[in-house]
């Protein structure tokens, strides 16, 4: 593991919202997570990074109870690793999966009313962060663009009072303008609640993340301030196989 870096912004002063301690995931004979331990600070964005296939999505699934896991996972000091997903969600973790999972046959408003029956697209948070969704409230979600579906998926978790949001590659496959819009929303969201974000777009990480945790082959290989990692061309190349100099802007 590389040295723990001092945090240049968003330093955590309160207890972490989430702690993973020696978390393992096995699928059949495959040992996918091999003792993952890290903390998610109670404020701001913690980005979970790593090359393809190192276990980032599996880590989010282990937290939310969608992967068979062992080890200890603590939400605000209480163990959740034996709970079913429905109970973990009720305990205050919102999950935006990579595939967005909107109900394509339902309208935008109906999708939102599944979580907030009395409010749907009328909820103040929807009007404030997703004005486009208010305009499109009667449109079937299956006919929305990828970016708009991402907004529905994000809006849905914001309609609950969550202690923590897990967001998996929200900008994957989106056009640059939509990447910027999603990044703006995430930055705004993170002002009021902590986010654990899986993201491959390093300029976006540099813009909105406070801290980074890097996985390789199912284990944590680096933790520290996001700004320090993305400023270090050699380290980003070593850990992630990419160079910021070759990346476009978020
Ligand atoms: N249900 C499953 N059964 C068997 N193997 C799985 C399962 N889910 C994931 N894996 C394997 O676990 C490894 C980690 O997958 P995971 O999706 O967590 O990686 P990732 O870091 O999120 O990758 P990417 O950046 O490409 O999305 C991969 O080798 C994948 O093939």
From TrEMBL:
PROSITE patterns: ABC_TRANSPORTER_1, ABC_TRANSPORTER_2. CDD domains: ABC_TM1139_LivF_branched. Keywords: Amino-acid transport, ATP-binding, Nucleotide-binding, Transport. GO terms for molecular function: ATP binding; ATP hydrolysis activity; branched-chain amino acid transmembrane transporter activity. SMART domains: AAA. The keyword Glycoprotein does not apply. One of its GO terms (biological process) is L-amino acid transport. Pfam families: ABC_tran. The keyword ATP-binding applies. Residues 18-242 form the ABC transporter domain. SUPFAM superfamilies: P-loop containing nucleoside triphosphate hydrolases. Belongs to the ABC transporter superfamily. This is ABC transporter ATP-binding protein. It comes from Terrabacter aerolatus.
């Amino acid at each position: 593991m590389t040295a723990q870096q001092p945090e240049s912004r968003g330093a955590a002063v309160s207890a972490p919202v989430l702690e993973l301690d020696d978390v393992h995931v096995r699928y059949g004979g495959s040992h996918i997570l091999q003792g993952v331990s890290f903390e998610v600070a109670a404020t701001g964005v913690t980005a979970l990074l790593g090359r393809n296939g190192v276990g980032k999505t599996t880590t989010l699934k282990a937290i939310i109870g969608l992967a068979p896991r062992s080890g200890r996972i603590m939400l605000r000091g209480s163990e959740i690793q034996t709970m079913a997903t429905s109970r973990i969600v009720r305990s205050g973790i919102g999950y935006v999966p990579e595939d967005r999972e909107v109900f394509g046959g339902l309208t935008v408003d109906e999708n939102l009313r599944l979580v907030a029956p009395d409010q749907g697209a009328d909820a103040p948070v929807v009007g404030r962060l997703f004005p486009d969704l208010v305009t499109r409230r009667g449109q079937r979600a299956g006919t929305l663009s990828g970016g708009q579906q991402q907004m529905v998926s994000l809006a849905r978790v914001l309609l609950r009072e969550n202690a923590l949001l897990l967001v998996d590659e929200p900008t994957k496959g989106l056009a640059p303008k939509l990447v910027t819009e999603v990044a703006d929303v995430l930055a705004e969201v993170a002002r009021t609640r902590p986010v654990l974000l899986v993201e491959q777009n390093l300029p976006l990480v540099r813009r909105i993340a406070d801290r980074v945790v890097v996985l390789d082959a199912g284990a944590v290989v680096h933790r520290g301030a996001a700004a320090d990692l993305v400023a270090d061309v050699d380290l980003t190349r070593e850990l992630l196989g990419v160079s910021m100099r070759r990346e476009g802007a978020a």
